[in-house]
Amino acid sequence: MDPSKKIKDHMLLTKRVSWTMKGVVLPIDKKRGKTKPILSKRLKKLTENASARILVFKNGAGQDGYEITTSLEEKQQFLDQCTQKIKLAAPARRLYDWQGDRIRDLRTVPLLDKCLQNSTTPLRGPVWVSKGEGFIPSGAKTYIQGVLWAINQKLTPARIYSKQVYHALNGCTRKVTHKGLLSMTTGELYKISEDLENLIDELRAAIKKHNGQLSKLGPQLQAEEELQGALVSRPINKFPSGTTLPKGLQLKVYRNGQSTGEVLIYINMKVIEKESGSDKFMMERLLQMICQRLQCSSGYHASGLNLSPTRLFDENGQEIKNPLFLENDQKVWVSYGEDYRSICKPFLCVRFDRVIGMMEQDQKIVYKTSLEYDGPLTGLEKCETWEVCTEFPENYDWTQMNQICHEKMDMTKNYHFLQWKKDPQLVVYPSITIENRSEKAASIKKEQRRNRTSEGVSKWSFSYMWVFAKAGMIICRAVPQLCLAVSDQQIQLKSEGNLNLEGYELVVEKRMRQSPHQQWGFSTAGRIYSMAYPEMVLTYLGEQKLSGVMIQTDHQLHLESCSVDGQERNRSLEEEVSANSPRKGSHEQVCRALEVQLVPGGCLEGDKQLTVALLTKLEEKHPWTAAQRWAIKHEGTVKPGQWKHSKLENPLWNKLTYMWPVLPDGDLNEEYDWPIEGSLLPNAPPLLKPTQKSHVGYTPVRIKVLKNGERDKSRILTVTGPDIANMLKKTCTSMLGLPFAARRLFDENGQEQTLLKDLQRDQLVYVSCGEAWMDPNLMSVEQKKRFRLNNLTCDVALIRSYCAMRDPRGLVLEVVGNLVPGAKLALAECVVSTDHEENTCEADKQDHLCTATTEEDHCEDGNIVNDLLPQPKPLKPQQIHQQQFQFQDGHIINCNCPWLVVGVAGTNARPGTEVTLVEKKADAIFQRWTMREGSRTFHLMGDPDLVLAVSMPQIKLGDGNSVVEVQGCSIILQKYKGYSNGVANQKWFWTPEIKVLCAFYTSVLDKEITAANQASVCTFCICKTEELDQPGYCITHASTRQRTVVCLACARALRGQNVMTKLHPGNPFTCATGRAQSQVEETGPFKCLKVARVNLSTAEAENSLACWEEKWISLRRETSVQTISREVSAAKTQLAVRVLAYRNGAGYKDGQLIIGTTFSSLLTACTQRLELNRPACRLYTADGSLILTVSELTAWAVNEALQEHKSQTKDDTQSEEGRPKELSEEIKEDQAKVSIPENDHSEPSLPRVTPEDLKSMDTELISLIVKNPIEIWVSCGESFMPLTESNKRLRLQQKQWLQKQKVLFDLDTMKHKMRLLQGRRVGSMGPANMVPTKSPIQPVVVAGGWTEPSPEEVKLMEDVQSMEMHLSEVQAVLMKESPSIHSKLASSQRPLYSQPNVKRVLAYLNGDFPDQGTYAWGKTIQELLESCTARLKLRCTAKTLFSPDGEQITSWERIERDMLVCVSLGEPFMTSTASRQKVEVRANYARVLKEQGHDATNIVVTSRINLQPQVEAPSPFLALLPAKDINE
């Protein structure tokens, strides 16, 4: 057979074909072949889309079905979609077909009949969904009846059309009514007739099928009718009193920071409570269920710090930590690790209120009310219909006082008004206010409804939008005749810290040219200042309390303190402020979120809320500078993309689409399309890129450092740092080369230093890794003994680990836990007994099969079974079934459960994969094993290079207390190693008599070499000079270029120093470490012991271990006895402090008793016990004193104790002498001599004790004082919140809740009354009246009747609406107050540590698709490669990074954040197409090799003398080549 025949035929065929306009034309004797798919059947099956459409009905219904597209493999996902589509009250649980049988697999759902299909995609079904109840056949009956009716509707026209075709074929043209049939040919008519006959047959078959199914449902339908009749007459049993019904929840889930994209999720709380115990586990289970439901929703993608939800928030921004507090239909927001993001932000907008002029006692008074108009509202928002008046309109018709108004206006001020041209009686007063709205509102009406804004704001749609002109004007977008301006009214504010702040009110005025009060400037710091007052800027005032007065030029006004909600006012004025009082030049504080209520006495009868004003500019580093920083949010679609022209350093502005009119140099940005249109937002981020804040409170100090106990002063290093923590953590550890992180500092006297301010410049200190201070003046011999003791401890630990693993006996394969699929496998002691004679015979048989290199090995192999199988022990029936296995047909089958075999789950078998119990499958190649009797190994049939092996225990270097046990080790896959020794964990033997699989079935020498390699012990200690076939490496020295062969343990100790090459099996050697003349260090893997002097052979291992342990104990006792007195004298006793810690701002709630000796330990304990979100960094006492050290805390406690003792002594003195009504003359004379201010009633206090004074005080007295717990308040960086504030806030909250309960009760009462009125009106069924009119279009109008509500009902409806509006306003105030403190605290946060330069990239494996990648992190190339190895689960370490274009990445600067990189294991860059082509070549090669044999792949080319070519059959091997190569 000619292997190249197919290629030659193909080449000849390409020459004979010709190209035409209709495509390729083949020769006459050739026909078009069948197109073969490129993908194989297996790959094609994997890439097939398993989704299908299923027709679903609710249980008991047969109409209004739903088509649901789902995957046939995901039944639970299909049930969740049914719950949402059908809107079930509980989660869907069961599926039924029309026969009532339960459907357990979606692939068993049949297809609908062909005549019922409505699309090219096949439709399956029908399926009935149940919430857990049984099948209701009435739904199937309704469905079948509907289908029969639809089929009959199709069958009747088909029959009529068939008769018409029959008449047309027979020539009866008179009977043909469809004229289109007369124009058809006979062939077309025959084809139509054939199609109609097939259609009629299908319809008749479908009718027969559905009628038959309907007859089968007869007994079930009859049983259902009987059951319904029985239910009518049967009483329903009551549940017992202690029975708890399952609780279901329907949650409305949103993404964090968004108000759209609602996802309904149904939760069964009974399942959560049953599966989880504590609140923490219940919350984790709830988040897991929410994540599963969200993954089924459209447009799902995780964003944040995690890939699954980790936190839940309610509407108020409070985190939900207990699922039992959730309510039905509650709205929750999902977070992936980030904090709560509010959906609303404050915007500067214009408020429109209606003003009404009244006549009171012949005086004209103007009142301000809400914007309500009885006439038609058409055209109110059109600016052309309004006229701006600089004073109250003169053509206004003043009326008598006949209604109650809200607020009286002071007409002595220069107010500007808007008058409607169509109705002069409609006058509107515009003012400036702050409105909370969402940035991404779908419509203004929805937004205003959500924010509960006033009616005055909602009348104009663009009240929050402004137009910024180049001239400096800020024009109102709703009414362009108006602009933002500064009034002449000066205000003076007073904060809680008795700091006076002065400024001016903001108003809306008519546009005037060259008016400095209407012109504004924009600074480079994000502030907006007035041209009339350049030293003052626009400031946002929020929700905290301020008191203020308005200063006028000629008379004085009184000061009145107002609360946030404006409920009450003081009746009398206590203070008077001078009208011409000078303003102070500097103000220290201003509140970032303020809400001021300023009321001029005698002018206004209501309260006026001030939320924005023009105040003095603050310093840059002021904590509330953000209140004076503004941003322009791009709005509208007239000029899209304006924000892209911003030239700002902070990238956050572009991310939020914010704009700023000026450049960093102060000039206007000419790239904008002026004028700019947008909204104004306060609290904007800084314009400059934020820099890292330095730690405050410590001055950098330069000091000299040495290792602990170091005597050589020439090794002194100089370091400089801001504090001790950074100096120890970053500098000293790396510069001194310490084995562990530096933790403690000692001076030359041995005293520990905790503060940098206690050290002098260039002072010498000693750095410790946590151990006590070592005096450098000690003898060098003692230091050497300590060093030798530490090294000997590590070496003895290695020898102890080796002795524990060197001879594992009686260990067999056992199943951990129950016999179920997925159960893990491990080694355990054999519990199956056997006779000693049978074991001996089996050992003799196995001795002839096993190969050995020496006669000694043969003797050892003859007794292997006797050693592995222990003596008979009492049987344990519960473990016998877990240890017995049967090896049959390549399967390792469990004897008790024959359907469970030993294998790998899935098809991803690689070294290190854990082997478990799996369900037996006949065609699964990763469940079948090949036993090689020569090597005693079990090879995986899917990958013969992988064998069954024991995962040896890991050894911790230097840990002498840990006990190493081979028993209990897991079973994994390892790459086969062909060595004779050192691979004992891969040797197995199956004993047919007792049906157990014995581990470590090999010689003693092999087990000892394996244990030595695992315990990092040189193999020269076991075999000495005997050459063995074992794992090892060949070292090439850089200087001499000589080669040395060492064992695996020595190679680990020498790695990184020389070039190493791994030795292949079959090269016996002895380790060069123990030789006399060797270039390798004689200690090898040990630290102090020499390899040649350690004898760990079979007979001497235990003796050597006992000898070295005795020496180690002796050296330890000797060292401790000599230095114990010096260490005790040098050690510094730390005084333990007891504190009662509370959260900052929580008052005396949830205190925790904490004991610590150092300040850092106290902070760490407070962070853990109080469950703080961030590390604690500050401590405060009850009086607000900041505590930064333990000494300061102790000094404060001593001062409090002395002050308390003094007051107690005074009380005792007064109680002894009594309480006389009149003081004696001597006491009066003493009081007269002492001059005490009137406002100071406190007595002279005792002198304060400082931390430095504690050293001179009595230690016992300090211990007695510190014994009592000290109350402290823990802060994460925010300032101290006084205890009075928390108590006041709690009382205010209780008062607000009582008011809310009363309003809710009244609201329910009115609603009930309104329902009664509606019921009476509908029940009366009163007729309507026909009222005649003069209109020719509608001469008669229907009036009255039972459909028209009564006046009482209308009035009651208005009262209900007004009360609901009041309730919403109260709730809005509560929502604003709750996050005010947190926002203030969050503004003063500073980073505790500097963030590392970590970058995140999206990495995918070389040859795979980029969408199969995952995220990896790192701050260097090597760290990123290690992260990619772990995240992608690679079989070996990643070595190279490529860009998507194939360019190799070698520099860390080329890697950008969130960059797409390709990870390679060392091979060149390969695209996904090349990878598939490579797989295709291998598959074709294997297919040809299997079908044609080995000769088919051998192509031989020979030259011949005959010029006429002899055509032979081509080789199938040429099918491996691509098509373009074949053509060539």
Q: What does the largest sheet look like?
A: 7 strands, mixed
Tell me roughly what share of residues is in helical segments. Answer: 25-40%
Determine the mean pLDDT: 76
What low-confidence regions span 5 or more consecutive residues with pLDDT below 50? 230-234, 374-379, 440-458, 553-607, 693-697, 836-875, 1121-1132, 1218-1242, 1379-1395, 1509-1528
Number of extended strands: 65
Number of DSSP helices? 31
Distance between the termini: 23 Å
Q: What form results from the Cα inertia axes?
A: globular
Broad structural category: alpha+beta
The Cα radius of gyration reads: 45 Å
Strand content: 15-25%
Topology (elements, then pairings):
Blueprint (H helix, E strand, L loop, with lengths): L4 H12 L1 E3 L2 E3 L15 H7 L3 E8 L7 E6 L3 H12 L7 E3 L26 E8 L6 H34 L15 H31 L1 H16 L14 E8 L7 E6 H7 L3 H18 L14 E3 L16 E6 L9 E16 L2 E7 L16 E4 L9 E2 L6 E2 L8 E4 L6 E11 L6 H8 L3 H4 L7 E3 L5 E3 L5 E13 L5 E11 L9 E3 L5 E3 L5 E5 L6 E5 L5 E2 L1 E2 L14 E2 L18 E2 L11 E2 L1 E5 L13 E5 L16 H5 L2 E2 L16 E7 L18 E7 L9 E5 L2 H13 L7 E3 L17 E5 L11 H26 L5 E5 L9 E5 L6 H14 L5 H8 L1 H5 L8 H7 L1 E4 L2 E4 L5 E4 L12 E4 L9 E4 L4 E4 L5 E5 L20 E5 L12 E4 L4 E4 L4 H12 L4 H4 L8 E5 L6 E5 H7 L4 E4 L38 H30 L6 E7 L8 E5 L2 H11 L8 E3 L5 E2 L2 H28 ...
Parallel strand pairs: 3-6, 7-10, 11-14, 35-38, 54-58, 61-65
Antiparallel strand pairs: 1-2, 3-4, 5-6, 7-8, 9-10, 11-12, 11-17, 12-15, 13-16, 16-17, 18-19, 18-34, 20-21, 20-25, 21-31, 22-23, 24-31, 25-27, 26-28, 29-30, 32-33, 32-34, 35-36, 37-38, 39-40, 41-42, 43-44, 45-46, 47-48, 49-50, 51-52, 51-53, 54-55, 56-57, 56-58, 59-60, 61-62, 63-64, 63-65
Helix pairs in contact: 4-5, 13-18, 13-21, 14-15, 26-27
